[in-house]
Amino acid sequence: MTKITAAITAVGAYVPDFRLTNKLLETMVDTNDEWITTRTGIKERRILKDKDKGTSFLAIEAAKNLLKKSNIDPKEIDLVLLGTATPDLPVASTAVYVATKIGAVNAFAYDIQAACCNFLYGMSTAARYIESGKYKKVLLIGADKMSSILDYTDRTTCIIFGDGAGAVLFEPNSEGYGLKDEFLRSDGNGREFLKIEAGGSLLPATEETVKNKQHYVYQDGKSVFKFAVTNMADAAALIMERNGLTHDDVQWLVPHQANKRIIDATANRMGLEPSKVMMNIQKYGNTTSATLPLLLSDYEQQLKKGDNLVFAAFGGGFTWGSIYLKWAYN
Prior knowledge:
Elements: E1 5-14, E2 18-21, H1 22-25, H2 33-40, E3 44-47, H3 55-70, E4 79-83, H4 94-101, E5 108-112, H5 118-131, E6 138-145, E7 163-173, E8 178-186, E9 194-196, H6 207-211, E10 217-219, H7 221-242, E11 252-255, H8 260-270, H9 281-284, H10 291-299, E12 308-315, E13 319-326
Parallel strand pairs: 4-5, 4-6, 11-12
Antiparallel strand pairs: 1-7, 2-3, 6-7, 8-13, 9-10, 12-13
Helix pairs in contact: 3-4, 7-8
């Protein structure tokens, strides 16, 4: 019996029009272009300025882009997965709303929350549904309106993040393409270093929590950086070793876009030259759940059927991991 694998067959993306450049940030907070570029690799990030639009808007636009490009009827979609750290509402699932708005009326839907590993974990989840044989089309979206949870007087966080969304369609494949292997991990001891302190069941919103700015992202940059550099690189190296891949066998590293230094360290550990590393951090910053699919969208025209892709990500929680996927189309 031929083994069914889960292959990516279509890609879509959306980023807002407004560009928040480093030069503009200089007028908002005590920082400068050279400092930001040297330490992060970021030159600008996209911001969804419309206060009446949330993460669902970004996700819907990315999904529509995918559907239009691939000429797929949304009624054929069986499942919609949405990775996001910034859902529209605390309770009502954003994925469910997105599925309805794009016309995926025959799909069930739910959100995934693993911080910056949302899309990576979502790839694993989507693959399991496809491999079961019961589902034929799984739409995985990564979307975040990070500007909604940033304190633009805090230069340690506001320089890093941007808004955006990306989407991929997973379908069954019997030719050996698609998701081949994964190494996913988490460590709850890390939640003190990257978090939003208030707004959950542990510390519900009060006048005091709002006044103390406890509803914005807090990050202990040094601790997060140290953990991310080690674990992202280790995970990527392990997935290569486990599958007998050398640096010559890997066509592309698809790394989470949190910091250029972390990306470089991961590529060096894998023995990859810069030309094999997907990077758009300079354009978008860290879009959290959207970084990986935005990379696929930006590089889609360069991908060839049979290319070996290694995905690597790290996020709050802590969460991290790597996935080996063989590209399925030209």
